[in-house]
Amino acid sequence: MTISTHVLDTEVGLPAAGVRVELYAEDGTLAGAGVTDADGRVRELAEGEPGTYRLVFHPPSPFFRRIELEVALGDGHHHVPLLVSSYACASYRGS
Length: 95
What we know:
Immunoglobulin-like; five-stranded mixed beta sheet; single chain; four-stranded antiparallel beta sheet; mainly beta
């Protein structure tokens, strides 16, 4: 299993660079971490066994200080984007 992510600041309509992202395994151990690049991406956040993981984003929003997503990851590659602004946040299963 591999995972990547992309953070978009929908308030300004640009990728969110410099966002810290952490991935925790079901047992709470840190499985991977990174900071988004100029395109708002962490291209290789982690590689591991299929299972339940918790993605933790620390976005540039003045309201959303920490966003956590719990995801079930199977075999293969997974891309989990985050859309964030001062007023809303959303995610979806990317391709």
